[in-house]
Write a structure and sequence with these properties.
alpha/beta; Metallo-beta-lactamase, Chain A; 5-stranded mixed beta sheet; 8 helices
Length: 253
Amino acid sequence: MKMHVLSGGRLRMKKSIFFPDADRTETIELPVSAFLLRHAQGNVLFDSGCHPSVADRVEERWGGLAKLMMPVSKPGDNVIEGLQGLGMTPGDIDLVIASHFHPDHCGCNEFFRQASVLCHVKELAAARAPESEKQGYVKADWDASAAFDEVNGARDLFGDGRIVVISLPGHTPGTMGALISLDRSGSYLLASDALAMRAFLDNDIVPKNTWDKEQFSRSVAEIRHIEKGGATVICGHDAGQWASLKKGADAYD
């Protein structure tokens, strides 16, 4: 199996959303990550990043949310273009894992009409709840799937321990991560926004954009346990870590 790291765009947000002690005028730029997992039994995409249109028409797509999350991506900096760079199209993807349904993680789901979208039952319920847009859910992004495959706990996708989806709630009700086992590169935890930045783990920081602080802290404790077991944790939006990762055709295997 191979794991390709793909760019899902880039955001600018207030730093105080993540670091409560930061000056309210200070901003931070965040990479948006996605992962192509090329398994012998199928191609799996973990998260799909931002929709291509937000590079130049963000308010049209995201509405008022654009005031909190401002895309600073260049045109072409998205998962669809990343797949094309690997000689692939959305039709080559068999399954999309939605770590959660915030628009920077599921924005390209609409392109994968031949794939089902694996999501947590509580996340789909949260997105479908009345006035869910106030919690950061954009219907045009999360409700773009031809078929949802709901889980309520862990699932070994192919029964061989290569890709195991786990529940890591707190950031949202149904945030999920994925444990990846590779022959040569070792084990990885794709943590998404269960751990957006390494500093949250190292300094016990709970960011403001957290749905449930208690569940978030329990998930961070689980991530710490997984890391102690030997897995490399890949955070959802850590700029320093992002710069160190191999990307595109330079795969982990």
